[in-house]
From TrEMBL:
The keyword Chloroplast appears for this protein: no
Functional note: Involved in the import of queuosine (Q) precursors, required for Q precursor salvage.
Protein name according to UniProt: Probable queuosine precursor transporter
Entry GO CC: plasma membrane
Length: 202
């Protein structure tokens, strides 16, 4: 089961980097497409940590970081390869996958800081609760780490580009949206943990 959870984590992580280019709006919320995908990675590290332990969860986070670095490296190479005459979408391709160094750096730094914090908080609470109160450690660890992730990413990516009022508004709206997703995914944490333990017991 672990290999599937790990693969899902890395896959969603890479997918969120691609979907971040698309902005969508719900009411007053304007968010990147990654917002609905990336928050699920915190659910997966919580499930992995709950079933397989803190060290395994940390290794999953590290694997995600290395995979992102490799993805950036290969995307950079492919973007800068000379386009074939028949390929008329080079500029669009660069816009979607190229990204800026600042945004990429913001993504990597916020990822490594917040994901490690998520694992640390989750297992500190687990040391106190044992296997009980999964919903508390799942929500508290995700809500705290998402605040760090959102604040770091938006500050690094957009500081000096947008007014401070707009920057703070971006942080607040994205964080609220991520909180809602984190609360909604709590039942899935219980289901995935139960399923993983059942499969590992066979």
């Amino acid at each position: 089961m672990f290999i599937y959870l790990n693969a899902l984590f890395v896959g969603l992580l890479l997918l969120s980097n691609i979907l971040a280019v698309k902005l969508f709006q719900i009411g007053e919320f304007i968010l990147p497409g990654a917002a609905i995908v990336y928050v699920v990675t915190y659910l997966l590290t919580d499930v992995i940590g709950e079933v397989y332990g803190k060290n395994t969860a940390r290794k999953t986070v590290q694997a995600g970081f290395i995979t992102q670095l490799l993805a950036v490296f290969f995307i950079f190479i492919v973007v800068h390869l000379p386009a074939a005459p028949a390929f008329g979408l080079q500029s669009e391709f660069e816009q979607i996958l190229g990204g800026s160094f600042r945004v990429i750096a913001a993504s990597l730094l916020s990822y490594i800081a917040s994901q490690h914090l998520d694992v640390s908080i989750f297992h500190r609470l687990r040391a106190s609760h044992g296997e009980k109160k999964l919903w508390i450690r799942n929500n508290v660890s995700t809500m705290t780490s998402q605040l760090i992730d959102t604040s770091l990413f938006i500050t690094i990516a957009f500081w000096g580009i947008v007014p401070l009022r707009v920057l703070l508004g971006m942080i607040v709206t994205q964080y609220i949206f991520k909180l809602i997703i984190a609360i909604i995914d709590t039942p899935f944490a219980y289901l995935l943990v139960k399923w993983a333990r059942k499969l590992e017991a066979k």
